[in-house]
Specification:
By secondary structure, the protein is of the alpha+beta class. The protein is built from seven helices and seven strands. The chain has one domain. About 25% of the residues lie in helices and about 20% in strands. A six-stranded antiparallel barrel has the order 1-2-3-4-6-7. The chain is globular, with a radius of gyration of 18 Å. The chain starts with a helix and ends in a 38-residue tail after the last helix.
């Protein structure tokens, strides 16, 4: 396993364990708290869910369609180069299951066939802007996210419009915001109010990573291939004096 893949695995696992929300030993012995009294073997697929993330998803074909997205994630296998998440519209007891997201390292992404890459969105702007948070982790995940800046996500929403009563319509390929103004201010304010946080303050803290916040335009086509930091040339961050 590469050093980058090891980092990807360790930052996702070690940080949430430190926050007290990933007691794998307890889950393997007695099952998840929500499944007490049930056959633990039957619920094993949920046992590794240990990371909760909240951000915003944007439809790639129509960037004006945006939703709040609550992610519950687990490593798919030992090695750490692939995590998988279920996506809900809220963290309420009766949420709508919007879809799934797969998260991979940059090394895994670069090895994908060219035709596949159009499905994968970057995470650099979401992290640097403060829009992606880990509410159960210390400082909303500030210490965890530097290792995830260059990861990629593939997200399909099978409940394309959460305002409907049933999951009707074709699945939507979702994307990430990659520049200021691409997510509605009211969505950000609503999310921040739920957790008592300030996205601008989180953004200010993350200046300590030492990189400028990327400013990339929305995709113009579902066939556009994502970029993390720049619109052209080497896709590398602009370093600042903050670090």
């Amino acid at each position: 396993m590469s050093k980058r893949a090891c980092l990807f695995s360790s930052v996702l696992t070690a940080t949430v364990l430190a926050a007290g929300c990933g007691d794998h030993a307890g889950m393997s012995e007695g099952g998840h708290a929500a499944t007490a009294g049930k056959n633990a073997a039957n619920w094993a697929p949920l046992g590794r869910m240990h990371l909760y993330l909240c951000a915003f998803h944007v439809a790639k074909e129509n960037p004006n369609f945006q939703v709040e997205a609550h992610h519950y994630c687990a490593p798919q296998r030992d090695g750490g180069d692939l995590h998988q998440c279920v996506i809900y519209d809220t963290r309420s007891p009766s949420p709508k299951l919007l879809g799934v997201e797969y998260i991979i390292t940059d090394a895994a992404y670069q090895a994908l066939p060219a035709e596949e890459k159009k499905y994968w969105h970057p995470h650099a702007y979401e992290i640097m802007s403060g829009q992606l948070v880990a509410p159960d982790a210390p400082k909303m995940g500030d210490d965890m996210f530097p290792g995830l800046l260059n990861t990629w996500g593939k997200t399909w929403h099978t409940w394309p419009d959460p305002t409907t009563g049933y999951p009707t319509g074709e699945p939507l390929l979702m994307w990430s915001a990659n520049g200021d103004g691409q997510v509605r201010n009211d969505l950000v304010a609503k999310r921040d109010g739920q957790f008592g946080i300030s996205t601008p303050q989180i953004r200010e803290r993350r200046k300590s990573y030492g990189f400028a916040v990327p400013q990339l335009p929305p995709p113009t086509s579902v066939n556009d291939v994502g970029r993390r930091w720049t619109t052209s040339g080497a896709d590398e961050p602009t370093k600042t004096m903050a670090k």
